[in-house]
Design brief:
Blueprint lengths: L2 E5 L3 H11 L4 E5 L2 H11 L3 E4 L8 H10 L8 E5 L4 H9 L4 E4 L5 H11 L1
Parallel strand pairs: 1-2, 1-3, 3-4, 4-5
Helix pairs in contact: 2-3
């Protein structure tokens, strides 16, 4: 089973995603950017779902650190965020994000389909 790390500080959303897709993927979760990077190094997930607004370091910095690490750089990252402005999307994609989903515009089944398309 593929391992998916979700780094999301909204407890309700993180738990919803984890419960809904936990039967399809082995889910690992954290709510903090810095801890999320450490968890990625330890667990080497097959894909990362990453929020941008996080306590400590933000999602852009998490993305930067993961893509700068040769052991983690090839892991696909999908940003899930309420930040839907074009400059935020472009910044994430330039830093190496594989896709960007605005939370309010996608349901769980679409998120699962998106994950499957990268695995």
């Amino acid at each position: 089973m593929s391992k998916v790390l979700i780094i999301e500080d909204d407890d309700f959303f993180r738990e919803l995603v984890t419960k809904k897709i936990g039967s399809t993927f082995d889910m690992i979760e954290d709510n903090d950017g810095e801890k999320g990077v450490e968890l990625a190094k330890k667990e080497k997930p097959d894909l990362i779902l990453l929020d941008l607004l996080l306590p400590g370091i933000d999602g852009f910095e998490v993305l930067n650190r993961i893509k700068a690490d040769p052991e983690l750089a090839k892991i696909p990252i999908i940003n899930l965020s309420n930040l839907g402005q074009q400059e935020d999307i472009e910044k994430a994609l330039k830093l190496g994000s594989n896709d960007f989903l605005v939370k309010s515009q996608f349901d769980i089944n679409q998120i699962i389909d998106k994950i499957k398309s990268f695995l």
